Amino acid sequence: MERLPKVAVPAIAALIFLIIILAKSTVTIDAGHAAVLYETLGDGVDSDKAPLGPGFHIIAPWNRVIDYETRQQEIPEKMSVLSSNGLDIKLDASVLYEPDVKNLGKLHNEKGENYLSRVLQPAIRSAARSVVGRYTPEQLYSTKRDAIQEEIFEETKKIVERQYIQLNNVLIRDVTLPPTIKDAIERKLRQEQESLEYEFRLVTAEKEAERQIIEAQGKADANRILSASLTDKILQDKGIEATVKLSESNNSKVVVIGSGDSGMPIILGDQ
Q1: Same domain, 85 and 154
Q2: 34 near 54, Cβ under 8 Å?
Q3: How far is the C-alpha of 43 from the C-alpha of 28, rounded, in Å?
Q4: E strand or H helix at 139, and its extent?
Q5: Are 264 and 243 in contact (CB under 8 A)?
Q6: What is the CATH number of the domain that holds 110?
Q7: If you placed Cys at 164, which of 46, 54, 103, 263 could pair as Cys (CB 3.0 to 4.6 Å)?
Q8: The predicted structure's pLDDT at residue 1
Q9: Are 171 and 77 members of one domain?
Q10: Is there a single domain that holds both residue 118 and residue 171?
Q11: C-alpha–C-alpha distance, residues 84 and 181, integer Å
Q12: What is the DSSP letter of 52?
């Protein structure tokens, strides 16, 4: 094999060096990410510069980029906090967050890549201790869970929004009480439910009794009015009308005139 010309060796070396430089000078940012540019020969990350967005970028080969995910992310948190009466309560929560993209340089310079452990986690734990400490275990277990979730979110948001983190939501998945306290609360809730059911039955029975009294009173009043309006003459006229209608029917019958009470006729049928 013929030896390469002397000029070819430097050319190949220069080409390889150029390829390495080009590889170092290009960077691609994925969708849902952004990056800050660290200028090695300068002052590091310039907080006032806009971050590099998704896509292809050319940079100086001696600089480097630090990538951050900018989509909403979730961090699970299991916390042990105290209620208003000093009982140990365990919270299972999810924190939904994302970095403040427009201030990504400030986030990197002031908090660093580990901003979750430095800022967000301490903030959510502090807010949870503060909020849960205002409530009793019974309130945490039943009626106040939504309010507690909202209060933890608002208190955490106040802490982190000044530190270039956007808090989207805090979700309380579970509240775990000491077993003895949980059992006592459940017994109390059952007793309250049974008491409400008993009161409902009493009220229903009372209303039914009132209805029956009113109905009976109405019937008595109707009978009294009817009795007062029925004179002997009216009864006799009604009897005559009934006798005439019966006598006109096709059934076999015997009419005894003047044999009934008050002279009313008696009609004897064929049976």
Answers
A1: yes
A2: yes
A3: 23
A4: helix 137-141
A5: yes
A6: 3.30.479.30
A7: 103
A8: 44
A9: yes
A10: yes
A11: 14
A12: B
Burial (Cβ within 10 Å: 0-12, 13-18, ≥19) of residue 105? buried
Domain range for residue 152?
Answer: 73-177
101, 70 in Cβ contact below 8 A?
yes
Overall domain count for the chain: 4
Extended beta strands in the chain, E state: 26-29, 33-39, 44-45, 55-58, 64-69, 73-82, 88-99, 165-176, 253-256, 266-269
Judge whether 146 and 203 are in contact, CB under 8 Å.
no
At 166 the pLDDT is 94
Its sign, for the CA torsion 158, 162, 167, 171, is negative
Predicted TM-score (pTM) of the model is: 0.60
Q: Is residue 3 part of a domain?
A: no
Q: Is residue 202 part of a domain?
A: yes
Residues of the chain with pLDDT under 70: 1-24, 142-143, 180-196, 198, 226, 228-240, 242-271
- Of 22, 46, 69, the last residue of a domain is 69
Q: What angle do CA 223, 228, 216 make, to 5 degrees?
A: 20
